[in-house]
Write a structure and sequence with these properties.
Length: 67
């Protein structure tokens, strides 16, 4: 059985930020986690509720099927 949530990952660029600008110049600001306030892996222009990696993991554990 396949789980389908309707969630899609935000669009990413082909070149990572660190490669595009090694000195940090021109990097887009990171979005803040809506639960804990830590920086996320997503740019600030990402639409919707963004979560940091830790909160994403906890959310996945919380909604996982335990049956």
């Amino acid at each position: 059985m396949e789980f389908v949530s309707g969630w899609t990952a935000p669009e990413t660029t082909a070149v990572p930020d660190a490669v595009a600008a090694p000195d940090g110049a021109g990097r887009e600001e990171r979005a803040m986690c809506v639960q804990c306030g830590e920086p996320t892996d997503y740019p600030a222009s990402t639409r919707g509720a963004t979560l940091c990696p830790v909160c994403e993991w906890h959310e996945a554990e919380r909604v996982a099927c335990s049956c």
